[in-house]
Amino acid sequence: MNHRMLSGITPSGSLTLGNYLGALKRFADAGHDTDGTFFVADLHALTIAHEPARLRRLTRETALLFLASGIDPDRSTAFVQSHVPEHVALAYLLECTAYVGELGRMVQFKEKGGRPRTRASLFTYPCLMAADILLYETDAVPVGGDQDQHVELARDLAVRFNRTYGETFVVPALSRPAIAARVADLADPTSKMDKSALEGASGVVRMLDSPDVVRRKVMRAVTDSDSEVSYDPHTKPGVSNLLEILASCGGVGSPAVLASRYDSYGALKQDVADAVIGALAPVQARYAALEAEPGHVDEVLAAGARRARERAAPVLDRARAAIGLSEPAS
Ligand code: AMP
Ligand code: TRP
Questions:
Q1: Are residues 141 and 20 in the same domain?
Q2: Which of 114, 152, 217, 270 is the most buried (most CB within 10 A)?
Q3: 140-142/173-175 β-pairing
Q4: 78 and 312 Cβ atoms separated by less than 8 Å
Q5: Same domain, yes or no, for 171 and 225?
Q6: pLDDT tens digit string along 127-136?
Q7: Which domain holds residue 32?
Q8: Close Cβ partners of 293 (under 8 Å, ≥ 6 residues apart)
């Protein structure tokens, strides 16, 4: 079945192996039989303290990594969020649909915000995310567990808007990844590998890390106190994470089956390092080729933004009309 799948990534750090295995690779694989919409959510990066030059650099880097990962701009729509002004315009209409009570219940806001100098946009951000989703009549939103609540809110806002002002939006579904690919931090296997970690964090493999750096990070990965290689995410989170990475990077068999082939952590780590380096190599090669052709990348992103606007504009117009706004005489 043809799904309309959409996802965004906030350019708040250099993308990690977790972003690749849990998101980009999946988008690229799905791209062949879905109508995919993938964007760099630069507006979302403005909700917490940021540095303009770094944001511009990471927006570009993230967009290049989308393309380098194999998202095909001819089949999918790939663009930078702020190049499509309909997102902000619809977000405002959804801020006029959402209640402060429900926004205040968002776990992410409670964790990161709620202080006098919290940016107002961090509070309203789920409305922008809902706009991202509803503008493209999306029916599948593959996100990590931390975003479930925001997708639920998008659904609630769509239903409320439709009920109050008439059928306007397609109500999206939450799409759960088939294999729960959650890559943990190599230095702290109980937390997720996070692109927003400090730049030099030793347990975070970045998609653009050189082979030497990848190998060093993997060889230093925290394992468990005994020396038996077995797969048990609860009692052996470090080794289990390495086995999952190996399985996702092309290892043959499930993590449990792979475990039976090793009798030392050292040999396992060597193979994980090789597998990660091998998985990232073609992406890094395509990245270098794209970087050498900045004009081509600009064109691809401009075409993506045009295509996105063509799809988003009629939905925004429908919402504007339904809520009671008028159009200027032409
Ligand atoms: P984030 O980096 O948290 O903004 O997430 C962007 C996308 O990458 C989402 O689809 C996440 O589910 C995915 N993602 C981020 N970190 C990981 C990770 N450590 N393991 C698996 N998927 C991840
Ligand atoms: N908020 C998401 C995150 O921080 C990124 C995002 C923005 C997104 N808009 C979206 C994800 C729409 C899915 C759909 O990870």
A1: yes
A2: 217
A3: parallel
A4: no
A5: no
A6: 999 999 999 9
A7: 3-177+294-323
A8: none
CA of 141 to the centre of ligand 1 (A): 13
Does 305 lie in the same domain as 280?
Answer: no
Are 262 and 308 found together in one domain?
no
| Residue 195 bears catalytic tag | yes
Number of helices (H) and strands (E) in the chain: give both, helices first: 13, 5
Does the pLDDT value for residue 1 go beyond 70?
no
Tell whether 21 and 117 lie within a shared domain. Answer: yes
The DSSP element (H or E) to which 126 belongs, if any, is helix 120-134
Handedness of CA 234, 243, 8, 83 (dihedral sign): positive
> Which of the following is catalytic: 25, 195, 236, 269?
195
Report the separation in Å between the CA atom of 164 and the middle of ligand 1, taken as the mean of its atom positions: 35
Query: Tokens representing 6?
Result: 């959409």
Q: Which CATH number does the domain housing residue 234 bear?
A: 1.10.240.10
* Percentage of the residues of the chain whose pLDDT score is greater than 90: 80
DSSP letter at 168 equals -
Task: Give tens-digit pLDDT for 262-306.
Answer: 999 999 999 999 999 999 999 999 999 999 999 999 999 999 999
Q: Is 156 found in the same domain as 39? A: yes
- The number of distinct structural domains making up the chain is 2
pTM above 0.85, yes or no: yes
Question: Are both 276 and 305 inside the same structural domain?
Answer: no
pLDDT digits (tens, 9 = 90+) for 223-250: 988 889 999 999 999 999 999 999 999 8
Asked whether 10 lines ligand 2 (CB < 6 A), one says yes
Q: Which of 25, 110, 192, 236 is catalytic?
A: 192
